[in-house]
Amino acid sequence: MSEMPKCPQCGSGFTYEDVTMFVCPECAHEWSKEAPESGIDRRVVRDANGNELRDGDSVTVIKDLKVKGSSSVVKVGTKVKNIRLVDGDHDIDCKIDGIGAMGLKSEFVKKA
């Protein structure tokens, strides 16, 4: 029986195989079998202060942001919990109380 790799995110030894992916049941991290475990090819997203952001982090908005197509504004100091990093111009997907689902640029937030 082959040895399963430990989770690169939390270090758990309880990983399991799911078709072409490895899955960690403790932190729900998934990674490809073909991907290097070192994480060298991983894209790094940084906040306005240069801190590395990860999925599930909480961030604070550092500038008033107008919501496109609406008269709403995301005010300075708004705390956003449980962000998700995505590829594209707006690298953060999140839900903001009172506004809803939205995409943010990492240059307008700081890690909370």
Summarize this structure briefly.
The protein has strands at residues 16-18, 21-23, 30-32, 45-46, 52-53, 59-61, 65-66, 73-74, 79-80, 84-85, 92-96, 100-104, 109-111. The chain is mainly β.
Task: Give the C-level CATH assignment of the largest domain.
Answer: Mainly Beta
Task: Give the tally of β-strands.
Answer: 13
Overall 3D shape? elongated
Q: State the domain count.
A: 2
User: Largest sheet, described in full?
Assistant: 3 strands, antiparallel
Question: Which stretches are low in confidence, meaning pLDDT under 50 for 5 or more residues running?
Answer: none
CATH 2nd-level architecture of the largest domain: Roll
Distance between the termini: 43 Å
Question: Helix segment count?
Answer: 0
CATH homologous superfamily heading of the largest domain: SH3 Domains
Whole-number radius of gyration? 17 Å
Overall residue-averaged pLDDT value: 87
Order of helices and strands: EEEEEEEEEEEEE
Explain the layout of strands and helices:
Layout: E1 16-18, E2 21-23, E3 30-32, E4 45-46, E5 52-53, E6 59-61, E7 65-66, E8 73-74, E9 79-80, E10 84-85, E11 92-96, E12 100-104, E13 109-111
Antiparallel strand pairs: 1-2, 2-3, 4-5, 6-9, 6-13, 7-8, 10-11, 11-12
